[in-house]
Amino acid sequence: MPEMWTRGVGHDGRFVGGFRDDRPLVGRDAELAGLRRAVSGHRLVTVTGAAGTGKSRLALAAVTAPLDSSWRTVVRVRWHDGIPVGRRALTARVERALTGAGVPDAALPPRTAPAGDVLLLLDDVDPVHTECIGLVQTLLTARPGVRILVTSRRPLGLGDEAVIRLAPLPVEAAPGRSGPSPAAELLVSRARERGWREDPDTAAVTRVCRLLEGVPLALELAAGRLGEWTTDQLADHLAGGQCRLADPAPLLLRHRTLRAAIGAVHALCDPAQRRVWRRLSVFTGPFTEAAAVVVCSGPDLAPHEVPPALATLGATGVLQVLGDAGGVRPLRYRAARAARDYGTERLAAAGERPATRDRHALHLRGVAGVAETLWHTGLQRQALQTVRDMHEDLAALVQRAEDGTGHAETALEAVLHLWFWWAVHDHAREGADHLRLLLSRVAADSPLVARGRWLAAWLGAARDPRAAHRLLSLAWPAAVLAGDDALLGRIAHVHGTLAWQRRDPESAAAYYRQAADTTPSGAPGGPSPAVSLAGLAVVQAHRVPEAAARTADRALAQPSCANDAWAAALAQYARAFADHRAGRTGRARHRARRALVDLDARVEAPEARRALRLLLAACAPAATAAPHLPVPAPRDGARTPSEAARPAQR
Question: How far apart are CA 467 and CA 471, in angstroms?
Answer without folding.
Answer: 6
